[in-house]
## 1
Amino acid sequence: MGEAFTQKGIANEALKLLMKLAPDLNVMQIHAKTTSDNIASQKVLMKNGFERISINEEIGAVSGQKLTFFHYRRNL
């Protein structure tokens, strides 16, 4: 989400809608990834029943810097 849309519950509502529609699309599992410093995204994922399954470091496509990513999963 862009900064202009943070703290408004939009990401949370979008994720809820995705999880509601997923079974109709035969999606049984959803994966998500966020940077370690993106606390807001981590909270949205955890609030919606995602579990952190791994951590890894990658070179950021935009910044070119090494970033730590948290990987999450939710079975539906």
## 2
Amino acid sequence: MVKVNENAPVVAKAKIEIDAAPETVWNIMADIGSWPSWNPEVKKACLKGELKEGTQFQWKTGVGKITSLLQKVDPPHFLAWTGRIMGINAIHVWKIETIGDKTVVVTEESWEGALSRVMSGRMQKMLEDSINSGLQSLKSEAERVSAL
């Protein structure tokens, strides 16, 4: 199982309940090319092949262009990738769980590298804000699609 680096200088974790089926949440989350349509932080995204371990994808945020590699794809429960930008090595994990009649999404990310050590306080806040914003956007989109 892919895990974030708990000992990295920057680590964030958040979760959210979503009123939508796990498959609906998965379909939105796993459609990497459509991320910009529901997540305002993602300006561009392109999967370079099939949604499977070892496939590369590129995406652009306000910070810059990121090249990532899918590490674990287990529909509709688990999606993980690694990526690198500005000397920061990132590990990102999404877990979809069903608790009662609710879908719960947990996301975690760790950043390591020189820049994340030197600017850990500022980067910690940036990562926490990004993760929480992404979860809110995912919730809004999944609940919108579910209501159709």
## 3
Amino acid sequence: MILAGFDQRDFAMLKSLFRMNLGDRFLGSKLGLVWAVLSPLMLMGTFCFVFTVVFPGRLPGKEGPIPFLIWLISGYGPWLAVNEGLMSATNSVVSNSGVVKNVAFKSEILPIVGAMMGIVPLLVAIVVVLGLQVVGGELPKWTLILLPFAMIVQLVFLSGIGLFLAALNVFVRDTALILPNLLQIILFASPIFYLLTSYPAFVRPLLVCNPFYALAELYRGIIVDGKLPEFWMIAYLAVVSIALFVGGLWWFRRLKLFFDSRL
């Protein structure tokens, strides 16, 4: 039901647009697609330096910096996907205004393609975490088979928010300008760089309901802890993601009737 109105041709176009957007993102640069790997590596390296050298962090009961780095990147990687996906999705309609006005296709595909752009930094982070586990003498966890499920949930989640923001950005261009600042606030307000126990006890119940924190914990459970995510977390993320996607799709389809006059 949530994909009502989409057919096989739309999914084929989704894949084609994703490949094209990925190539266009680094068009003209000498390193090309290498930047898709270098960029998240540089960001991860910066935060790893900050939280292991400047403000060194440790996990309770675990010695050395490697366990903490594994924990840090396994939560920060999904956030990189959030940041990249939402930024790309928000600008997707405005940056493709010529296509939207002159080509007959389902324009709601564009924010979904934008959300998919977050897959690249996420995969880079996962590879780094697995490499650190090998260096630290850990074997990959069997729960890695659940990674596709986590990625699908995250993609639905980001697509829902992206559909809403992409349509809003057509009418309120400040949306794309406010978003980076808002995401930065959410990042440092969420238990992604810090343990939940680092926060005051009275705000922890609210933080647990933060879907961005729940996503980070979903990946940490699968990659780091090697255990099945708690049922409430899976159910909560699934319900929130589907609700956001359905609501975002409805919002986008209502507003796209007026796109031509604003693009």
## 4
Amino acid sequence: MNLEDIKAVERLLSTPQKIVIIPHKNPDGDAIGSTLGLWHYLRQKGQEVWVISPNDYPKFLKWMPNNDQIVNFEKDNSLAKDLINSASIIFTLDFNHLGRVGQMQTILEEATATFIMIDHHQAPSDYAKIMYSDVMLSSTCEMVYNFIEFLGDTDKITPEIANCLYTGIMTDTGSFKFASTTSRTHNVVANLIDNGANNTEIHNRVYDTNTPSRLHLLGCALKNMVILQEYRTAYITLTQDELDTNNFKKGDTEGFVNYGLTLEGIYFAVIFIENRDEGIIKISFRSEGDFSVNEFARDYFEGGGHTNAAGGKSEKSMSETVKYFESLLKITSIK
């Protein structure tokens, strides 16, 4: 953030505000961690604050401090709309285009509040009055830490804030193995641990809690994996019937796409997941090296994200989507 934006935020927060914090649809660890971390911080400053999620999120994130205070837009629609309409400030975290909030898009476009964006994805839109956007940072949680530091309040980081922010940094860096992990990231994490983040417990809650049905679904996914060595690519498909057979719950497929990248010589990994209710194939892309899945997703699958991690969608059938994807590999250079 530049000095002008920091001063503007300080002026806004110097008086009582009604604040709403919003993550993207289908929020992940970084989205929930950053919104709750900011919620705890702003509450400390005496503000009236609410987190409104566009929809539900995975069970393995529901241990975070005060996650029960999050308003689900789909389930508590009237309350959510009232809070948005009465808000004086709206923070949007971990996304940079209002199209990422699903059914909330229209009401946010009509809101009169001052918008503040905190996000690390590429190609931000200009809906926010104050934008803290940096694609070089590991996670939105690292950015929220920086935001607190910009305001001179790192001494206000409680164990609750530390646990929330640590979770998002850990998940969005792939447990600190992605290239976006810098020495600064490790310094932030060290400070969070010093302030009460229980790194071992967080890792166990997020990664080491499975159900039989999730492991069966993973077995199905790995059985479906197609390896295209000539294109240095591996992809997985999961149909709605396969999800239903294995009692799929939100979050069960988290991390499945990364298995392709564990294969020698594979630099591009993809998972195609059918969502019959929405009439789409949801797609996650991962890569290693210089191949930009962000550009690939934007160019061909109405998506985007980061250089090595992105998402997209297709309204074609699973077979048509996969056939189209394979045709693209013939004109794509993957190194």
